Amino acid sequence: MNGLSAILHGNEQDASTTDAEGIASALARIGRDEALREQMIDLLREAERRLARPDLKVRGGFDVRAEITGEICDALCRDAGLMCKRLKQGITFNYTYTSRIARAVTLSPDREPDHVWEPQTTKLLLALAENADHVLIGGAYAGDHALLLAQQLAALGDGGVVHAFEPNDALADLLDLNIRQNNLTNILVSRLGLWRQEGKCFAFEGDDSDAHGIPVASPDQADFVTTTIDAYVRERQLPGLDVIMLDIEGAEHAALEGALDVLSRPAGQSPHVIFEIHRSYVDWSDGLLRTPILEMLTDLGYFAYAIRDFHSNYPMGDSPVELIRPETTWLEGPPHGFNMVAVKTPDLLEQDERIRILDGVSPKLLLHKDPALHHPSTRPCL
Fold first, then answer.
1. Which of 139, 158, 157, 152 is nearest to 182 (CA)?
2. Is 41 domain-assigned?
3. Cα–Cα distance for residue pair 170/221, rounded to 1 Å
4. Residues 348-377: pLDDT tens digits?
């Protein structure tokens, strides 16, 4: 019995031990034909719509993407090379299928989604930067947030600039490609890493968007060298920063330690900050407020909130961004991460009609988990 026959006859063990790689190779061969690949992806979207029923979500914790469609899509796109997704705003997003971000945008429920990754974080970032002059993004990837932000700033016509840091050369090359193809002239790309000190050498451990830096002894061993946010602001002679966004796999605290000059400025002159916090790098056993990164931000006059979001591509439309007070954020579960936002003027968030402040729920939006903790509170779940 070959692998496909084993699956069709319910013998999953035979399938996994005899010809699983053969099936993956067959799917990859189909995926080399772009038209066929798109038809197959449409079928996977339909499978997600039909299999992710509410009764299964509540009873069995059934994650269709993780258990079925995701792995099929991974095999289908394995040899696809450069891929492209057009966004609702007209942005062309080129990417390679090498990360969970790539899987998410490939399987996006909308053919032309309004975001690449993290719908609510994207929405909040754009809201905070509505009148910005200078926005800094650490961990810019291929431009999932930077492209939309630069487009918004360019439309305002006030000369707003995105300063995008991406030390991974392959991702920075994709970012450069996306900048050119979208005719954006207000993104400045740096291939330096952000840290608490300048000139430190780091090598990557891990792959693509999940790679994190580890210190190495010499430039010969290094994948990238660091700078600090304060040094960059000085070198560029910037008047300041309006927003800082960091997704740099555990280096967020160190990067903010390198930004104390701009972070210490008074409200109205200091940047709003969006950053990832992850249990693999941060011990939150005593609560979020007792973590070093939040203690530092609190001492500097910031008020922080956890952002409720899908770490995927999921249409949220006009649903408000939901934020959770850190002292009530539900943190149970396996090691995981989520984004937070910190501002010096909490009224900016708490009085914005596009934002809701909640207590006692999880920042992880997961449709296959307990609705009381993990579903958006302001929209029905499909």
1. 152
2. yes
3. 18
4. 999 999 999 999 999 999 988 889 999 999
Contact between 76 and 68 (Cβ < 8 Å): no
Contact between residue 307 and residue 321 where contact means Cβ atoms under 8 Å apart: yes
Handedness of CA 332, 303, 377, 50 (dihedral sign): negative
| Residue 300 and residue 238 in one domain | yes
pLDDT at 217: 86
Confidence of residue 61 (pLDDT cuts 50, 70, 90): low
Cα–Cα distance for residue pair 125/341, rounded to 1 Å: 9
The residue type at 11 = N
Domain end (from 80, 111, 142): 80
C-beta neighbour count of 333 within 10 angstroms: 13
Return the amino acid letter for 181. Answer: Q
- pTM of the prediction? 0.91
Q: Distances in Å between the alpha carbon of 192 and those of 84, 140, 201, 211, 268?
A: 26, 11, 10, 15, 28
What would you report as the CA-atom Rg of the chain, rounded to the nearest whole angstrom?
21
Quote the mean pLDDT of the chain.
91
Pair 252, 353 in one domain = yes
Nearest to residue 159, comparing CAs of 183, 137, 186, 178?
186
Distance CA 44, CA 29 (A): 17
Q: Is 37 exposed, middle or buried (0-12, 13-18, 19+ CB in 10 A)?
A: buried
More confident residue, 332 or 4: 332
Q: Are 191 and 278 in the same domain?
A: yes
**Bridge partners (DSSP) listed for residue 357:** 323
Q: Count Cα neighbours of 188 within 13 Å in the Cβ-side half-sphere.
A: 13
Q: Are strands 337-343 and 272-278 parallel, antiparallel or unpaired?
A: antiparallel
| CA 183/CA 92 separation, integer angstroms | 10
